């Protein structure tokens, strides 16, 4: 079994000092125009140095890909100075900095986009209250988005990051192309399962080509995915195993599953004999490293997750206790902070956006 203090060297040469990764979490702390703030730099600076890597909150690759206010931008060269500060802030004590890049697709609204219509694979609204009907992307626009991901990767390289993570999870645009709910197209970009994979295939090829042609050493590319959708029709777990199989053959450095609980069982009755994570790890079959995630709070959680993954992504525990990693590694689990109150917000540099996430995801940990 993998142990959490083991080092790991990716095929592109980057070496990571342990198996703990800070999960990408929305901060809503950037300026209105996507430029990073001092508060956001301090937020990451407080939580770096102990974990092997930090994956940032999502950075949008196009202006019309902005998902929410306070989101980091990477769609223009003007962001490079701020992104350079972010990369340098994270890269303390040999922690690696990975920039998550994404496009919100239909999971935003025209108010966030300053009056512009939202876009997606097809003109189908999301199944959520107040969802707007998106504009179906044209072939030219699809190719422009792929170019935007490639350009975002170039900026991440220029800014000094150690890698990018393609955000293909959590119902955002990349997942929307793979989903039969949001993708009703009848051209090369939709229809069959194989055609719904085309956008992902071209996007991954484009991003990895940028890295390999740049000549940079030790810069990695990861891909994050969600295992199931509850819409009908939606992504089934069988669809995801097809996706995982395809991605495991791509020139990627890791896959990163998105789960709210690391030991979750599939809703598909054909896959209930073991966890989603175990099924995915089995499908990968040692072809590519996998990051497991989902409410990891204790050393026991870490060790159980590492049975079926090569890395563990930790989110909420690091929000409450930025020194969670060292306490886990040094056998000081009894010293880990488990609760917090509004009085801790300033100390822990938790903005209102992050606090809202904590209120929704773990209200039992908040002291009124």
Automatic annotation (TrEMBL):
It comes from Carnobacterium maltaromaticum LMA28. It is an enzyme of class 1 (oxidoreductase). Keywords: Flavoprotein, Oxidoreductase. Residues 8-332 form the NADH:flavin oxidoreductase/NADH oxidase N-terminal domain. GO terms for molecular function: FMN binding; NADPH dehydrogenase activity. InterPro entries: Aldolase_TIM, NADH_flavin_oxidoreductase, OxRdtase_FMN_N. Its EC number is 1.6.99.1. This is NADH:flavin oxidoreductase / NADH oxidase family protein. The gene is namA. It holds the Pfam family Oxidored_FMN. CDD domains: OYE_like_4_FMN.
